């Protein structure tokens, strides 16, 4: 979650209620107690007022990033759910996620490791969803790529380490927006949800479906993939201009 200062000087966040909903959904999957939305919003407002003087000017595209952590708070070492939990927030001043004035990204497909598979926690906001990305992202960076593209069960496009993925596909005379289905496969971010809502409201042809990675190269060669982009509160909406799959 981020806090922004608008051109009018007003401090805003983006879809806090959606993020609280995903927070409670995640802690429920880990058998931890839920948190009250009203209390969370009051705490967020108090935090924003207290640190308002630290918020970057709107012209800098900077913000205060809030990392929300929930951990079990009981006097037992049992590996089980908990009746009590503590929520903490770490705030830090950040600029654009990708360095410099970059307007697009290059991605590397991870073919050896998996984080998106049947039975995984890829759809849950938890450390189990983030920890597997660290080493592959380091490899991607060393190879000159901005982030890693993950596959579902080693076969289908899933998501990036830092966001969801969309493509604009030419099917006959029609252009259709495609994104992988979220259920049990990937984390459904708030930007993803907003993009889908706009696409449907604007009556643009749209479909959630699995796209085999082996088909992507041919679709690009045939000129059928017109555009690919990522979404997420880290990266906003960012075009993808290059995909490295098995060093091709």
From TrEMBL:
<dbReference type="GO" id="GO:0009082">
    <property type="term" value="P:branched-chain amino acid biosynthetic process"/>
</dbReference>
<keyword id="KW-0032">Aminotransferase</keyword>
<dbReference type="InterPro" id="IPR043132">
    <property type="entry name" value="BCAT-like_C"/>
</dbReference>
<dbReference type="InterPro" id="IPR001544">
    <property type="entry name" value="Aminotrans_IV"/>
</dbReference>
<keyword id="KW-0663">Pyridoxal phosphate</keyword>
<keyword id="KW-0808">Transferase</keyword>
<keyword id="KW-0028">Amino-acid biosynthesis</keyword>
<dbReference type="Pfam" id="PF01063">
    <property type="entry name" value="Aminotran_4"/>
</dbReference>
<dbReference type="GO" id="GO:0004084">
    <property type="term" value="F:branched-chain-amino-acid transaminase activity"/>
</dbReference>
<comment type="similarity">
    <text>Belongs to the class-IV pyridoxal-phosphate-dependent aminotransferase family.</text>
</comment>
<dbReference type="GO" id="GO:0008652">
    <property type="term" value="P:amino acid biosynthetic process"/>
</dbReference>
<dbReference type="InterPro" id="IPR036038">
    <property type="entry name" value="Aminotransferase-like"/>
</dbReference>
<dbReference type="InterPro" id="IPR005786">
    <property type="entry name" value="B_amino_transII"/>
</dbReference>
<protein>
    <submittedName>
        <fullName>Uncharacterized protein</fullName>
    </submittedName>
</protein>
<dbReference type="InterPro" id="IPR043131">
    <property type="entry name" value="BCAT-like_N"/>
</dbReference>
<keyword id="KW-0100">Branched-chain amino acid biosynthesis</keyword>
């Amino acid at each position: 979650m981020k806090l922004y200062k608008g051109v009018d000087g007003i401090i805003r966040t983006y879809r806090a209620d959606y993020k609280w909903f995903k927070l409670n959904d995640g802690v429920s999957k880990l058998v931890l107690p839920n948190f009250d939305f009203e209390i969370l919003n009051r705490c967020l407002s108090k935090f924003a007022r207290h640190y308002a003087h630290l918020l970057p000017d709107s012209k800098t595209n900077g913000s205060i990033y809030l990392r929300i952590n929930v951990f079990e708070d009981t006097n037992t070492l049992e590996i089980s759910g908990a009746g009590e939990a503590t929520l903490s927030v770490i705030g830090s001043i950040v600029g654009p996620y990708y360095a410099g004035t970059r307007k697009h990204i290059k991605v590397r497909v991870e073919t050896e490791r998996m984080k998106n598979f049947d039975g995984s926690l890829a759809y849950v906001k938890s450390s189990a969803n983030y920890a597997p990305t660290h080493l592959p992202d380091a490899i991607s960076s060393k190879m000159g790529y901005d982030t890693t593209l993950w596959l579902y069960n080693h076969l289908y496009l899933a998501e990036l380490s830092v966001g969801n993925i969309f493509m604009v596909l030419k099917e006959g005379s029609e252009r259709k927006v495609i994104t992988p289905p979220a259920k049990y496969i990937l984390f459904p971010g708030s930007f993803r949800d907003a993009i889908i809502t706009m696409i449907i409201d604007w009556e643009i042809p749209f479909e959630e479906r699995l796209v085999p990675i082996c088909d992507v190269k041919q679709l690009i060669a045939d000129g059928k993939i017109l555009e690919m982009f990522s979404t997420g509160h880290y990266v906003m909406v960012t075009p993808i201009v290059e995909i490295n799959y098995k060093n091709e």
